[in-house]
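thread: overnight batch results

M.L. [08:02]
morning all. the overnight job finished for the chain we discussed friday. pasting input first so we're all looking at the same thing
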Amino acid sequence: MANYVVNKIICTEEILNKYFIDYCPIDENEKLEEPYISFNKLFGVNTLNEYAEKYGEYIYYGYGFSYEKNEEGLIEIKFLTRYLYPICAIVRAVEMFKENLIWYSCEENKIYLSEFFWNGKKVQENTLYIENTEYNEWINENEDYIEAIEYPDDEIWHYDLKNRSDWRIWESSNLIERYFNKYPSEEYYNQMHCNTSSEEKTKKIIFYDLKGNIKKEEFLTKENLSHINGMMTKCYMKDGKGQVGYADSGEISDRNIHDYIYLWTWDNLDEKTGKLIGNDDEKFNQTFKEIKIDEVEKVETILYSNPRWGGKLTNKFELRKEENKLENLEIPSFLQSNKQDNDKMYYFLFVKYDDCDGYCKDYNYISNDLEIKVGDRVLVDRMGNLAVATVENVGFYNELNAPYPVDMTKSIIKKVDDDFELDDLDFYDEENEYDEEFEDEDTLNINIENTYFKFGVSNYLQGKDNDDNWTKIKLIIKNRYFNYYKNSELMTSAELERLLSMLERLLEGKINKKEEIEFYEPDLTFKLYPKLNLWKTGKFTYIKKGHEIQDIYMELHIHLQDNNGAYIGQEYIITFDREEIEKIETYIKRKIQKNECN
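M.L. [08:03]
and the structure it wrote out:
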């Protein structure tokens, strides 16, 4: 039996005022200046003692209670009870208000979370097993943030519960009997966890590289399904069929659906050429398929198969045993052309990255510097990050016989000396050649305690379809310990607008709890922190007068990659104060307004 049970009720404001706010909870003749929350009105009793004698557990007021509106305009009531679920109040409230109230309870040992709701006929319990799950990993990753959470609030209410796909109904003919005098953890283990976990644990997501090698495996959970976003994916269904397409977890979050994943394919794709056909209004059309998660037995996905990585477009789930050598393919006569465009020659460099260990394939870049020769070293953009490479071969090609499509091949940044190292780059120099792409796009530059921070936005599109338009983000961070460069499509235009909106709310004091902003591309995460009364954290015995309130601040978490572009589970964090947040907010707003004026 636990010492405490944390509870959260979600209901309408009318229900709160009429049935939970109580000015006379202790004695009907003693009116309090500030009301309590009680269950008295649910049962028509006059005092807390009368309630306890008849119906058991009531609110423990030692840690207080709270109620506030959430983003949906509903009221969230938070409080604790001692030892047991207040099951009589739970059942009565759900029976009375049906679809207008949901009640969550969880004992402090956090074995499982209960959700009590009306299923159309009776009160039903939905359970989520949280002991020894991703929840514990989340706790470890957010220790500092969690330390500041005080009762009656609890960290469980800050965890992303909705995105867990393993909620399970725990049937009962008598919920009051189940919970009135005990906490049924043993029953739960026997009936719910032990009997089903073996089946769930066999469901896997398998990640392949492009050559068909298994790189990692994960359990098939809603959290882990977000890791396949954008990748070519195959879902093996219970009926024996396979469903193939590019995974889109954005569709899940946008539609607020938690039982499905979505796979999409190109409508107008020529598989032979790997190119989209048709006019500009139709060629990019896609078809989305809704896949019920409960019907999926296994998921296979291919790393770096997102079309935005480049390469031949396809609607097929295919693993490449060898890279195609386009220069060895015979060009069909009907593709030959005497047009001037096809006669233009491009100087291709075949390079190997200097930080590659063991066998490494060649990568193609185009150079306007015709004096670069085999053996020279060049600075290049590798998947949005700076890298140094050595030229292994060179050659002139036109559009038809180029080793890689010309319009998808990056240009080198510049030639560098034999003793050049990435740390030699002077990010304070606004004339560096790698800034050429942004020479017409102003950037934001901030010096944050001897850390140079540059932030640039280009290709923003205003309009109703801007969630399909990728905005290019330039990000440079340099100090004596860290050297980071990114110039890539990291946000959609809609995501940039959402970031601006959240920064405005933070600055205006409209955010009252920590907020995280994530994007389709997993490179960046913004974490926003509202004002905080340090006395309320309980972590200080002395605070200098005038320093009791901690002002707003923001963290930018940069998720780091290895040389092959795989995320390594490490991150670099840079912190911004109010003044710096204001500069970022003003810059983004100016970029958006500039586009709207155009």
